[in-house]
Amino acid sequence: MTFRHLLAQAVVRDLRVAEPWYAEVFAGPPGARPMDGLLEWELGESFGVQVWCDPARAGRSTLVLEVSDLDALAARLTAAGLPHDGPQPITVGRALVLTDPDGNRVVVTGP
Question: Range of 10's domain?
């Protein structure tokens, strides 16, 4: 058996609040709305992110993603008004830690 696709999931209270935030982070609207309460971004050939509305579980998710140009992402998010502390050094490169409106963490790593 071979695993071929990964969808990470962030759980939020309100999709109307979460969607514009994630659209800024992922540089565009969701590519799919597979069912009520679910938004989906395909970020690569075999991976993506789902944002799921479940108020009872909201705010307890962490996503970790890697990008090729962390500085460009940080600059774009700053220009869009999304708060962050900028890329910080970690043992294997740098990380940009973001927090969505529900408190979910989106950690983006890169060189």
Answer: 6-110
The answer to whether the CB of 9 falls within 8 A of the CB of 51 is yes
- Neighbour count for residue 19 (Cβ, 10 Å): 16
Q: Please state the pTM of the whole predicted model.
A: 0.94
Backbone angles phi, psi at 52, to 5 degrees: -115, 135
Amino acid at 21: W
Higher pLDDT: 92 or 90? It is: 90
Q: Is the dihedral of CA 68, 105, 45, 90 positive or negative?
A: positive
> Which domain CATH number covers 14?
3.10.180.10
Q: What is the largest CA-CA distance in the chain?
A: 44
